Amino acid sequence: GSGLQRTFHGRGLLLMQDGVPVNLTDGSFDFQTIEPLAANHVEVLRGANAWRYGATNLGGAINFVSPTGKTAAPVSARYEGGSFGYHRLYGSAGQSLGDWDGFLSFSRSEQDGYREHAQQENQRIFANLGGRVTDTVSTRFYLTHVDTDSVLPGNITKAQLRADPRQANASAVAGDYQRDFILNRVGNITMLSLNGGHSLELSSFYSEKSLFHPIFQVLDVDTEDAGVRLTHRWANDAGWRWSVGVEALEGRNSDERFVNMGGDRGQRVNALGQSASSLNAFAELEVPVVERWALIGGLAWLRHKR
Length: 306
Prior knowledge:
Oligomer: single chain
Distance between the termini: 24 Å
Low-confidence stretches: none
Largest sheet: 11 strands, antiparallel
Shape: globular
Structural class: mainly beta
Strand order of the largest sheet: 5-6-7-8-9-10-11-12-13-14-15
Number of helices: 2
Radius of gyration: 22 Å
Number of strands: 15
Helix content: under 10%
């Protein structure tokens, strides 16, 4: 798709975990929030193909589908090591308890980086617990904890690159440029199965994120985001399918800025209160035409406030 940006603050994509948005209300996302090893599989929906999840951006969507206690191995462990101080440890456990099951994973990674002043360290904990409440109702709860620290080497000129490709930008070293954040997130997906191929899906989440970001100034940002989505789905044996839904998101930032004193807070120079809200409605209809071909149409309406 288009409109993509993937540096340390991504935009232009809808990033999801089991169909629930990981994006903040303003549309931005952090890929560090996701542990790819703690995924059963990944769905990539380019451009307008992401309408089925209510995506209103041009870049499409990436959906990380989680293992459960029924699909994951009872115990799993993995270690990786490589150049430039790279280490990665991952462990997980899954357990099925009749109609209910649970999954838990932990990962830790660190690296010195090829360039100077480019160290990274990440810890992630992910868990889900779910099962069948009645014959027609099922639910699953999700918990995510991320603690990530990144030291930033900054940009260098082409001449500096040719002279020493491992050097860092002098200002980045003097200011000890970093991007560190802690994120905690809880979510739930509850599904009601109805007759005739119909179903209702209610998904919700709440997240807290604390960002410490010394760059040209020290940015100290606390963020709260919450969202809820209700989707009606239908499909029949002939291949007809539709999904119709509505989604509401709300987010607030407390953004304080300080003089950068070698990576520490100096005098406060600004304090910002920021808010974002989003209300989206979406629909998609798939009509089979001939074998392996279908006509797909979609509509989306959105209202964003900043």
